[in-house]
Amino acid sequence: GLGHEFLKHIERTRLLIHIIDISGVEGRDPLIDFKVINEELAKYNRRLSERKQIVALNKIDILQDREKAAKVKEEIIRMGYEVFEISAATKKGVKELMYRAAELLEEIPENETDIVIDDTVLIKADFAEGEDIEVVRLDGDYYEIKGILVEENIQKTDFNNEEAVKRMLRVLQHHGLYDIMRKKGIKQGDTIKIGPMNFEYLE
Fold first, then answer.
1. How high is the mean pLDDT of the chain?
2. Which of 27, 44, 90, 185 has the greatest CB tally within 10 Å of its CB?
3. CATH code of the domain covering residue 106
4. Model pTM?
């Protein structure tokens, strides 16, 4: 079971990301597991079963039965859920999942807090500094944020749209931008350049 401490925690969430082992390696039925967890949510608190939920089919890199996995995905979509195929090990599909989570959080009213992610350590992609996010000091307390992930987001963002810029920053935050900046010694009041815009760094 999920345990009451965990259930109490997710009562505060606005969005659930339900991670399912789709590999078939352990011989479990992913569809049954999915239904059982949602039944537990509903029994504990009916509102939890009605909360916005994204489903992530994990371990697609080691699938044992692709045909069966496709049927599971089809059934979950039929049940009305948005489904992503990911591999926490190889990071395939993780960026797309996080982008979608960030978009949904912009849409869902902020009357509750946090995202709950099962297997958080696996799902929160630990992107390598210098490849996905890179902090470059331009001059004194003036820094530029670069890297593959940053460039991808810059290309997708309308910098004349305040909400689009906020969404981009939230996506980068999910991928550890603030931790990387702090490690680089960036402090309150420093200027951060992302794409064509400058931001003041605030703790």
1. 78
2. 44
3. 3.40.50.300
4. 0.53
